[in-house]
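Sequence design from tokenized structure. All designs in this work follow the same two-part layout: the structure record, then the generated sequence. An example of the structure record is given first.
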């Protein structure tokens, strides 16, 4: 299994571009797109660490 290298700066720039596009198209009229972002980041990190551990057990 290939481990992908995650570039936080590139991911954040992509996220900013998606938010700008969503605001321009009217998707985020009332909701703050950053609401709950920290919890989502922590969840993704937990899932990634779990998947790495599980993959190592399989191999």
């Amino acid at each position: 299994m290939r481990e992908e290298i995650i570039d936080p700066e590139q991911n954040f720039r992509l996220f900013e571009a998606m938010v700008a596009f969503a605001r321009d198209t009217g998707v985020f009229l009332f909701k703050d797109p950053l609401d709950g972002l920290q919890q989502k980041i922590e969840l993704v990190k937990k899932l990634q660490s779990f998947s790495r551990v599980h993959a190592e057990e399989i191999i």
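The radius of gyration is 15 Å. We note this feature because it recurs in several other targets discussed in the main text.
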